[in-house]
Amino acid sequence: MAARTVVHLVRHGEVENPEALLYGRMPDFHLSQLGREMAIRVGEYLQSHDVTHLVSSPLERAQETMEPLAETLRQEVTLDDRVVEAANDFEGMTVGSNPKQLLNPRLWPKLVNPIQPSWGEPYEQIATRMRAAIHDARVAASGHEAVIVSHQLPVWTARLSFEGRRLWHDPRKRECALASVTSLTFAVDELLSIQYSEPAGELLARASKVPGA
């Protein structure tokens, strides 16, 4: 029987974002105090697993989410640009908390094709880079488990891709809460199952409701 390998896709915890910006790939956006609590919960949830390989997006909030687990396991973390947040032309704006900004005619060309989407990195491109990173993590942790800390859109897009579902979607219907864990179980390169959990679920009610990234 082929050895089973699990790749856990973790979304980072809550970010300190008082101006309600869509921060995307902008630097210097760190976890809030609540976000750090979430990171601890994720670490506690995964520390008993057979984790042998750690990967993080290079953005600060992802690395900070990984810290408690990496410290507990005493393992090095590989930074991988392929699991970074999706590029977005609205980065630095407050379109999440103030969508009326999108009524500005100069922004309309960015909205013509939500299926691609026309305002940012194509879903197909996100899926391709995420699947490549997941493949490499699976190989590195063969027969054991790997953890990748990434971001909501890349994690959700990867899941849709593995499930054979269309990649364009309603962002409000993503099953990918803050500090959630989407676990992919493989036998060699065959996907056996996808499981979803929220180790920090009881903290979510305290999280900001303003979209950031």
TrEMBL record:
Q: Which GO cellular component terms, listed alphabetically, does the Swiss-Prot or TrEMBL entry include? A: cytoplasm
- Kindly give the SMART domains that the UniProt entry links to this protein: PGAM (SM00855)
Q: Pfam families given for it?
A: His_Phos_1
Q: Which domain of life is it from?
A: Bacteria
Q: Which residues cross the membrane?
A: none
Q: Which GO terms describe its molecular function?
A: phosphatase activity
Protein name (Swiss-Prot/TrEMBL): Broad specificity phosphatase PhoE
